Amino acid sequence: MASQQEISAWRPSVPGVTEVLHAHFTEHVYPMHVHDAWTLLVVDDGAVRYDLDHHERGTPGDTVSLLPPHVPHNGSAATSHGFRKRVLYLDTTLLDESFIGPAVDGPDLTDPVLRARVGQLHTALANRGDELEAESRLALVGQRLREHLRPSASIAGAVPGRGIAQDLRDILDERLLEGTTLAESASLLHAHPAHLVRAFSAAFGIAPHQYVTSRRVDLARRLLLDGRPPGEVATAAGFYDQSHLTRHFKRVLGIAPGQYARTGATLRGNRAG
Predict the structure, then answer these.
(1) Measured in whole angstroms, how far is the alpha carbon of residue 210 from the centre of its chain?
(2) Between 20 and 30 A from 261 (CA), which of 27, 118, 202, 209?
(3) How many helices (H) does the chain have, and how many strands (E)?
(4) Does residue 258 sit in the same domain as residue 199?
(5) Residues 190 and 215 in one domain
(6) Are residues 21 and 127 in the same domain?
(7) Are 122 and 131 in contact (CB under 8 A)?
(8) Quick one: DSSP state of residue 128?
(9) Are 37 and 128 within one domain?
(10) C-alpha distance across the termini of the chain, in Å
(11) Which residues are CB-neighbours of 63 under 8 A, at least 6 positions away?
(12) 168 occurs within a structural domain
């Protein structure tokens, strides 16, 4: 088989994520090396075998692998056709160094919920303008990882309160256009980011990023029906750019903003006639 290598990597503007890497290798073999960040790995096709702390490990099935910083490891394909992987490199603000020992003991986690959340996080990180969604999803991923590594320290047991959810909604409403980060809101409300996401979702039946996006789409609808062009509306409604508006607008309404605006123009023309 001819050697094949496909790599894409970027640094998202989301606190806690130092790098995102998507790669497809057929013959590449990683030598022993270390990172100064946590390596959160999912393998979408094939499998990887690696050595960590003098123990041979692997990525069978739908596992999520968490390799700790400063601990040497290598990596190679465990199947003849190589492997396709997605990796997040996370700094120690999400998981501090007290979790390194438990991660060395059990780096491969079989948890469908965690794997689904990691996949959702990758999707959010790939879309500029979805940083709040990425922050929210990262907070939930971090919480799930901490539950695996230190169950007794889990913060998941508390029942979310409506009071702090309302406080978060007030912040999101006040900063709808300029936006806010989950970390900023958590600092203002003196709460853990994951608790904010859980409390808000439990109180209102929607995640914070979904709430912000739906409110911005509503605003965009009004501006489009006022006759403003989609490119101008995107910025005015708080979206990163027109493609960001279009993606979310179509998800909500099943129609592109330009088409939606034309329906409004047609109705205005009929009324005028």
Answers:
(1) 13
(2) 209
(3) 10, 10
(4) no
(5) no
(6) yes
(7) no
(8) T
(9) yes
(10) 69
(11) 42, 43, 108, 109, 110, 115
(12) yes
Comparing C-alpha atoms, which of 17, 27, 21 is closest to residue 7?
21
Domain that holds residue 255: 211-272
pLDDT tens, residue by residue, 133-170: 999 999 999 999 999 998 644 444 444 456 999 999 99
Residue 213, exposed/middle/buried by CB under 10 A (0-12, 13-18, 19+)? buried
Same domain (yes/no): 183, 96: no
**Digit-coded pLDDT (tens) for 179-214:** 999 999 999 999 999 999 999 988 888 889 988 998
- Please give the tally of structural domains in the chain: 3
Angle of helix 162-174 relative to helix 208-225, nearest 10 degrees, comes to 40
**CA 97, 100, 101 angle in degrees (round to 5)?**
125
Average per-residue pLDDT in the chain?
86
Q: Does 141 reside within a domain?
A: yes
Q: What's the rounded Cα separation, in Å, for the pair 192 and 202? A: 15
The answer as to whether 151 is a domain residue is no
Given strand 38-46, what is the order of strands in its sheet? 5-10, 17-25, 83-90, 38-46, 64-67, 108-109
Identify the helix (H) or strand (E) that includes residue 167.
Answer: helix 162-174
| Residue entry with tokens 């009004």 | 222
Neighbours of 71 (CB within 10 A): 16
Closest by alpha carbon to 198, among 159, 170, 172?
Answer: 159
Together in a domain, 184 and 223:
no
Note whether 21 and 128 are same-domain residues: yes
Q: Which amino acid is at 181?
A: T
Domain of 243: which CATH number?
1.10.10.60
Token pair for 134: 């990425």
Give the position of tokens 């099935």. Answer: 61
CATH of the domain at 127: 2.60.120.10
Same domain, 201 and 215: no
